[in-house]
Amino acid sequence: MKRRRFFKAMAAAPLAPSLVAQQTAAPSNAPAPTSPAPPPIDATQPPAPLNRAPSAMTAPVRIETAVADEVANMAPRYFTPAQFSALRKLSETIMPPMNGAPGALEAGAPEFLDFLISESPPDRQQLYKVGLDQLNTQAKKRFSKMFADLDSTQTATLLVPLREAWAFDPPTDPLARFLREAKKDVRTATINSREYASAASSGGRRGAGGIGLYWYRLD
């Protein structure tokens, strides 16, 4: 009985590797699975956009530019038109062109003072605004004109306080105190301008215009 079972087992043993070989070889004969074909491309349609976030490195950066001459031209912003016209007339009278040097108007001193006073303490702002208004008021009262429209003789009549002797203490009269401060400011702004420094350099004058430093008329 045991011998019969032994021969049955030996007869069945060679069949196991062949069955395994058939099972493992069967998939190699089957066709390989294929992926679905892509849809046909329609040349008349625009390509679909890519679903990706824009990159900051590839996005163009727009830089605003300005003409240098336009940037360098200052426009009055603080004083009223009547006040600024009076300031220009006063500046022209205090510092006219002389000996080849530019005057206050050529140096842009009124425009610079318009900016400077706008950034000054309130008491200095009040001194300028009241002083310029008084010049216009006195001009209309005595000559029926704005201060900017006066001739040289009429202007000198209103600027008499400038001819008074200098004293350490400031004048008590508001107009006289304003004229004293304005004279100093107009002169300082003029001789420290780029125009004045350029004229001094071309004329061979030393010491004019400070130590080579000057303010730019930038807006």
Please, could you describe this protein's structure?
It contains nine helices and no strands. With 219 residues, it is mostly helical. It has a domain at 70-202. The model is unreliable at 15-27, 66-72 and 207-219 (pLDDT under 50).
- Biggest sheet descriptor: none
Would you tell me the structural class of the helices and strands?
Answer: mainly alpha
The helix/strand order is HHHHHHHHH
Into which percentage range does the β-strand content fall? under 5%
Helix content: 40-55%
Q: Point out poorly predicted stretches.
A: 15-27, 66-72, 207-219
* Principal-axis shape: elongated
Record field, number of beta strands: 0
Please summarize what this structure is.
With 219 residues, this protein is an all-alpha fold. The protein is built from 9 helices and no strands. It starts with a helix and ends in a 17-residue tail after the last helix.
Top keywords for this entry?
219 residues, mainly alpha, 51% helix, 0% strand
How is the topology of this model organized?
Elements: H1 2-12, H2 15-29, H3 68-72, H4 81-94, H5 109-118, H6 122-143, H7 152-158, H8 174-191, H9 194-202
Helix pairs in contact: 4-6, 5-8, 6-8
